[in-house]
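Ticket #96: bound-state structure for zinc ion.
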Amino acid sequence: MAGKHDMSTRVFAIGDFIRRVVESLLHGGGRGRFLCARCLVKLAKNHLDKSYTTREVAQAMEDVFSAAGPVMHVMASSICAVCARKGVACLGVPSR
Ligand SMILES: [Zn+2]
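RESOLUTION: The complex was predicted; output attached.
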């Protein structure tokens, strides 16, 4: 149990960071584009310290998806703007 707690604490710590990275990715030229979690994890990892594992980033991304907040929006079944997968949950900033 202690190990699990340590891990969720760490995920919580990177959660805010990931959220900021994702927001800046989706805001800039990405406004109006919706991306799936898998692609966002890949993109976010480019902006993160190499010590973060894909698993950790993916877990933090799940939290962002489950609480997208006022700026970002989750579409439950959409087409990813990057990998073109269909029927996946995608996160983005609506263009209007
Ligand atoms: Zn994708």
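RESOLUTION NOTES: The mean pLDDT is 87.
TICKET STATUS: resolved
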